[in-house]
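User: Can you fold this complex?
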Amino acid sequence: MSINVHDKYKPLTFWEQLYFPTILSGLALTVRHFVRNMFAHTLRVLGIKLKWPGSVTIQYPEYLRPLFPRLRTLHRLAKREDGSPRCVACMMCETACPARCIYIVAEERLRHPQIEKVPQIFDIDLGLCIFCGFCVEACPEDAIRMDTGILEIANYARTGMIMNKDILLKLEPDETRFVQYNQEGEVVSTSILKQR
Amino acid sequence: MAEGIGIILLKFGFILLFALGLGGLLTWVERKQSAIMQDRIGANRASIFGLRLIGLFHPLADAIKMFTKESFTPASAEKFLFTLAPAISVFFALIGFAVIPFGDKLIFGDTVVNLQVAPLNVGLLYLFAVAGLAVYGVVLGAWASRNNYAMLGGMRAAAQMISYEVALGVTIFGSIMIYQTVDLQQIVHLQGGTFWGWLPAWGIFMQPLGFILFLTVGIAETKRVPFDAPEGESEIIGYFIEYSGMGFGMYFLTDFVETVMISAITVTLFFGGWQVPYLLADGFHFPWGEVWLLNNWTVALFQIASFSLKVMFFLWLQMAIRWTLPRFRYDQILRLGWKYILPISLLNIVLTGIVIMVLK
Ligand code: SF4
Ligand code: SF4
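Assistant: Here's the predicted assembly.
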């Protein structure tokens, strides 16, 4: 092991030890921001919109930030073309899940030559889930995905945090919540959405 | 004719409303100003029937929350002192306003109203006495809570207040030497004229060093950042750790009222108090010879407005400083107090003395 010597606490110079010059320069910075932002806010109240805003705040419940596509959001169970679940109840995700929050009970899939099983129960307890995405990686059928763009998962009861098969099958990916890319992989739009 | 009890009560009500109103409003100013300085928007969600008024309802919501919360007393606390301490704290913060002059004279028929609640001829000394007693509320509260962290906070407050109390007294000596009085109304009167016919004769032009030192010490007295070692939220939470509900609310208010107090004293001593440049008792007398005559009421209004505006400017400045600097380390606070500010303010006295001697 090596020893790291940090030169973090070097003694203050005389100028810095006087306190006041450095305090004043710090004050100048914050006051400059104050004056600039106050100017923008005042003009906005008077009905004049400047190119630069007076703040970087996104007023959250009304406005939403765009999400990056690789962000792991609420799970969903994908469907086949005929509307039946893609999931074959192989229990891979249940095994891979480090939080042990997936609970699957399989049943026989009737009248199908290749697919033998479908889930009868498929519960994910979001109160336990750590959003690691291992379930998505593990799935051989690409049946479980985390691309719904839903982040607001809250409930008054623990039981309300358990998502069952019907809910998970109904969820669809929400394209508008994500940053849009074009064919070359360049970002096309990152606009802030207005909700509702 | 002397002032009746009714007029004194009216003045009392006015200054109390001024201090408490500004103190309450400062919670809003603190949120909004810090937000704007940091490119944010700040609290704006409290609303009445959908009316938000740029967050002005937040102080109201705070007050309602404080009053309706349980005021909890720990089992081992000294109950009587525990309840009394926050009240002492607020009390000493508020009574200082009695000697602050907020205007000159108002004439009602044959009654002359001195716009100062208590025209004490020892005003400045009284202020120091009050400021010195303010620490009792903090230390008593800390002691009565029987909590080690509160105790630490209280001890820090005591050490800090005592070291800065000395400096607070000494920084003012320069002004006292110049004005030869400690009556605040008279000090403001003496700042009325002009230097060379155009520069208002405010204290800052005679005591620039004194002003900087006094503002620093004053901010230390309010126990707010960068001198908030007694609170130290991140390490010991502070002397009010056991307080909840309105007990905490009173300590909280004390800090803000003291901020207003420091602004008011600074304005009175160094920025001409209620003086408006070129405004004499009968109207404006501009340096280029123009004269606008005004009646007594208009002049008084101008003076009160001038005093309030100056106080508000210093509130803004104190907020800006509070949101710019991080907290000083505890030893830095004491070193700054004893090793820098005290000697420099002693030097200020000597310099002032020499200048006075030379000018004579
Ligand atoms: S994201 Fe991770 S924790 Fe959540 S269900 Fe999938 S594997 Fe389990
Ligand atoms: S890994 Fe995929 S197919 Fe297997 S049980 Fe989980 S979701 Fe279904």
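Chain B is about 60% helix and 5% strand. Chain B has one domain: 5-359.
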